Amino acid sequence: MSLSLYPTPSGSSSSKTINGLPASLATSFRDRNITLPNFSQLKTKELRSGHRQSVRGLGWSIDGRKLATCGADRSIRIWVPERSIDHRASTELRGHTESVDQLVWHPLQPEVLASASADKTVRVWDVRSKPSDTAITTPGANINIAYHPTGNYIAVGDKTDTVSIIDTRQNRILHTVCTRRSTAPLTGDPSYTQTTTLA
């Protein structure tokens, strides 16, 4: 299952709620449908037929206007639910050659997102233009991705438990850490961890 709540913009003390419940929640249960519950009316909207295979991840842009979904069909879709829930009104982004397993919106720029794929790349997209601006090759098949709060770094995790830190200003990997205990350095200390500080 994938979940995404409408974000609260940084510096804002309020978030959209209705009777204490989030105003915008998106869910997907590894099928092709995305559900948008409307808590005020106790109804749901469904975004259907956007992906040809299962939805793997989803997320709201920082301004809460756009919902991005990604899937096993190697595509990303950008939806604007306020305007339309019809898949023909969504924008399709293509460039990955294998399943897109996760995506994340830039924390400060509502038109930019990054995607992690089994094709061993991270792509950075400006959704106003369809082709990916940037593709960064990583060591493995990626399954997790997160932005640093400044937007200057991306952390991406792959299926072998390797985490790569990407500098988005230079579009290159700065550091790679294998998080499996069995690959701890030669010190023999199984509790060894390495910390990287990002500014």
Can you describe this structure?
The protein is mainly β and 199 residues long. The protein has one domain: Methylamine Dehydrogenase, Chain H (7 Propeller), CATH 2.130.10.10. Helix content is 0%, strand content 45%. The protein is built from no helices and 18 strands. It has strands spanning 2-5, 17-18, 21-22, 25-28, 34-38, 43-47, 55-60, 67-71, 75-79, 91-94, 100-105, 112-117, 121-126, 134-137, 142-147, 153-158, 162-167, 172-178. The strands form six sheets. The chain has a four-stranded antiparallel β-sheet with strand order 7-8-9-10, with no helix packed on it. Mean pLDDT is 76; it is low at 8-22 and 182-195.
Under CATH, the topology can be stated as Methylamine Dehydrogenase, Chain H
Q: What is the mean pLDDT?
A: 76
User: What is the CATH C level class, in words?
Assistant: Mainly Beta
The helix count comes to 0
Main sheet?
4 strands, antiparallel
Q: Shape, please?
A: globular
Radius of gyration: 18 Å
As residue ranges, the low-confidence spans are 8-22, 182-195
Strand numbers in spatial order across the main sheet: 7-8-9-10
At the fourth CATH level, what is the homologous superfamily?
Answer: YVTN repeat-like/Quinoprotein amine dehydrogenase
Topology pattern, helix = H, strand = E: EEEEEEEEEEEEEEEEEE
User: Could you tell me the strand content as a percent range?
Assistant: 35-45%
Instruction: Report the count of strand segments.
Output: 18
**What's the structural domain tally?**
1
Structural class: mainly beta
Q: Mind telling me which CATH architecture this is?
A: 7 Propeller
Distance between the termini: 32 Å
- In helices, the fraction of residues equals under 10%
